[in-house]
């Protein structure tokens, strides 16, 4: 059986494993204060074109989300999110566990619009009894969204301007950031994100690393406090060097860095799979330009595919079809994709 | 400079790195539901002589501590700890951040006694206004303690009996468990811990792994709920296989497993260092049988050592001397220890 | 200006004030352990026909809600509520502030149905990755609901059976309980609630008291722990006697107690107001049998009414009309209601 | 039996009850936005000589403490307190329940000194791994302290200067503030507190009110946010007018207000009791100038007193004597005190 159900089913890119082995007996101070982390920070600052950014490394996405939210918000503030946002649906109430309500807004395509954010914000403050409801303190966007869609630079800019005009933090969850930045049609860069967001992170776990998310802060003050929050939330890795080392391997080399190469590869693999489905007249649920594709499949089609392949059931679409996710990654081999495409072409 | 300041300054035992590389492209389901984790669970159950135990793998010690405490206690309950306990002094208030007060008791040697625990418990319930104080719900012991001391089987048995008679959970923090179990004079085994505790964990980070703590539960019910708590606290590693794989490598092979070998090695190295100090008439702060030794050193002695070696300043002892920690680990080389001993012998 | 915007705009029933004055210099132990509270507990147990019930007195509704939720649930559990439920919309995220997500379900009429609850529960447990979502631990119903509607005994019984079959607590928010129990067509009694719920409360603040909610527990164990939770949440009134005294005054006298008399009075006043609107062809938003009525009014009609009366704007209904709440209470005078009805009749 | 065990065993000063009765049927908007609260705010501002202060009214002391702490601190910050401070010992871990560790410092007399605060603060920031410990964010002082002692203006000024130089909030718990301000030798005024503290409160519950604490804020920004925190913590009284009305009655009239008169009366009563004990050669545990006196009594003496009087057992002093608390209040009658003194004089 060959898995296409997620982008974290293999280990790490071999260069990372090699670097781990090569440096295994070096002695380093713990908790992210070592030279590897410092170098990775500098590399990220260079990508972002801002040498003043704060950078901290965490192990996983939920950890990053909840630590950022809790570190930045006051106890009576909540975070605005698409109702399909990862923090709202798939983190076992982690933000709430730190005391912060997710103010979940319904969306048509999994992406928050400026209009919705503005409406939510103004509804709050225009309510004469606003103290009886949670104060919006932050906007959370996933880039790409949970369905693979991306935001344009114009959209992010407008949301950022609104946020900063009204005292809301803008936080971008970049668990799959690479796949988004390298998507066809994406006009957003790391340097745009650094400029428009208060905090965002560069996801490593799903883009070539064993694990790791690099959280980037615009405010030095915020960044300083964040290390307390990391420790308090159990997210301060003793051998922090492991995180710095991985991001150094992924991001060194500027635009030609491994991170972008791997993301482009995964996107290309996903585009092939999509084409294979479309050639058979099977429509996509949504027009995703990234590493996740969502064909609408009948139970019969799923059964046929299920003899050789493991995709992810995503939800019921209509009485006949379900939404099914096919996910590629840095580790997806062209052989497996070609095999899948042939199988689709012949068997469906 | 050669570091002796902690037991997490290098990477992982080479056999672990090799296993990582060998299996890197295998595809596995995430979140600790893979075959590696299952095998590691079985190996741990065998060590403990109890096939019904629940086992979950977390990345680090603070994460393990806070997740266990929060998962098991009701909101109005607190955890009894030595005031020198890691949860009380070095986790940025992580238990409190989940709502649970650490009921910190002063100790003479960093270890809780049955008498103290009983006094604390009875003082609470004998107070007619006990509802105005936090209800003790759990006893937390570090084994070995933060100063390297261990508990005897008789001590643990007595504490366990008291806890279970009075409805308190007994939780053992085993971040350095290997060094304790393999200490000279230790009469406690994994199977004793599994029998006496409600929850304990086998620390990997400090004993040969890149990272990882294996949390062992006696109650199946508790264990089931624990996975929610792990996710909620941001501790559910996407590529959970990495944890299972490491514990499989460390613990396979019964009494001759890598974990015990590495711990014995570190303890032997620490004993050598101790002897070197004692040969020079330098007393130890405390009689630790494990991988941490605490000579009392003058500022002058520290300066001399500091030219070649990095130990950890532990605290002021008296007007002339400080407590200084020398820590060995699975990665400490005999060459470095011999060099240090010679340096002590000649230079101090 | 005469207010009809809420049911907590006046003080307390004069008999309560008289009792306060008469007993002002009595000396009593604090925190709800006095004779007044004990007598009030017994009176409530008699109303409920169960001498084993636990009863504690709190000052307000949000306090009662959040203390119950936090005291009963484990950290990874959430509470199922109508999305219009008070805990979800009007308590500044109080449940989330204690770590518990409100699992908000959309409703057509502000009341949860058995089907929804069952679907939510089974969706959770049928999801193979259920640990990534909040575990349902409790069902929260407001009786009457925020829009004045009530549940039938058959509905409550079915929900109760489902909850207890599946290990969910059933918690009824009775901030306006009196108005519900005394509504025309209501077949639910205090003794039904005590039998069907794990916890419910009898609201005093809105039904004749200065303040106060009597929280009733079926389980003695739960009840014992609850006093810790009260204190921890800052809800333990020093002069607890004030709460016992009020509930004694309200509830003594069995079916002819003041509490029911006041509720019946308010409901009758509300019915009059409703009739006045309907006589003018103005429809109600919802068919409420309790002390809150919601006519659909144009801006012009609101303006005319606003010259003499203060109702509560509830929300936009369509392009022409808004939902407006008229609220009566134990303190509403027939004179004011007659005046309002006449004004409606003449002016609208 | 006559009680001297606490200062909240009776109701409220009759003028408060009268005002409640006189205004019972007035209609007012809820939640502290009514005219009574506004007038009370103005009266407090006048006492403090600062028309810009923010004032909010809460029902009780634990509620006030925990709401202030949680509203002001970031999640990774804790509050410095004497280890005998009410928040540390008698609030069921309420601050911790909101996520904030109490950094408890041992004291000789229940009062924090500038030296201790400074040492605690500098120890934190001088520790190279300070992120592993809770960041001090606030200093909490009880005035008077739990043992009745007061701070001088010089002490408060020095602490205030240190706090504001180092970014710590200074918060004064004034649950018994009246008794402190009116103590012989006290050189602190309300206007000093308003100037020196970031937040403090004027306790009503123990000084003449049925209940109520008036929380005073120097920063308007802080004050605005505080209303969210009140609601979130379940502390927003629906009939907020009850709080405003009480503080208006207590504080109107400037230096000749009821609040001060009642406090002076209680202090005088306490001084009489003290003198009675001392006349018999019975020493005090501590030199309290306020309404609480702590004679050291043998078991035999306690038994004799216990035939007619109920004081509060405070703790064991030595093998022969206990510390026993005698508490007076606004409601203590000269007759009862004279009776007690005579009884002491004759029977002990």
Describe it for me?
- 4 copies of one chain form a homotetramer.
- By secondary structure, chain A is of the alpha/beta class.
- Chain A folds into 2 domains: 2-7 and 258-347, Aspartate Aminotransferase, domain 1, CATH 3.90.1150.10; 14-256, Type I PLP-dependent aspartate aminotransferase-like (Major domain) (Aspartate Aminotransferase, domain 2, 3-Layer(aba) Sandwich).
- In chain A, 43% of the residues lie in helices and 17% in strands.
- In chain A, strands 2-8-7-6-5-3-4 form a 7-stranded mixed beta sheet, sandwiched between helices. In chain A, strands 9, 10, 12 and 13 form a 4-stranded antiparallel beta sheet that branches.
- In chain A, strand 5, helix 7 and strand 6 (169-173) form a beta-alpha-beta unit.
- The interface between A and C is medium-sized, with 21 and 21 residues.
As a percent range, the share of helical residues of chain A equals 40-55%
C-alpha geometry of chain A:
globular
Q: Could you give a short account of the major beta sheet of chain A?
A: 7 strands, mixed
Mind telling me the CATH superfamily name of the largest domain in chain A? Type I PLP-dependent aspartate aminotransferase-like (Major domain)
Q: Judging by the overall fold, what is the CATH architecture of the largest domain in chain A? A: 3-Layer(aba) Sandwich
Unreliable segments of chain A (pLDDT under 50, ≥5 consecutive)? none
Number of domains of chain A: 2
Order of helices and strands of chain A: EHHEHEHHEHEHEHHEEHHHEEHEEEH
The tally of strands of chain A reads 13
Q: Gap between N and C termini of chain A, in Å?
A: 18 Å
CATH third-tier fold name of the largest domain in chain A = Aspartate Aminotransferase, domain 2
Task: Report the total helices of chain A.
Answer: 14
What is the averaged pLDDT score of chain A? 97
Radius of gyration of chain A: 20 Å
The oligomeric status of these chains comes to homotetramer
**Structural classification of chain A:** alpha/beta
Query: Tell me, what is the CATH class of the largest domain in chain A?
Result: Alpha Beta
The interface involving the most residues is between: A-B, 52 and 53 residues
**What fraction of residues of chain A sit in β-strands?**
15-25%
Strand order of the largest sheet of chain A: 2-8-7-6-5-3-4
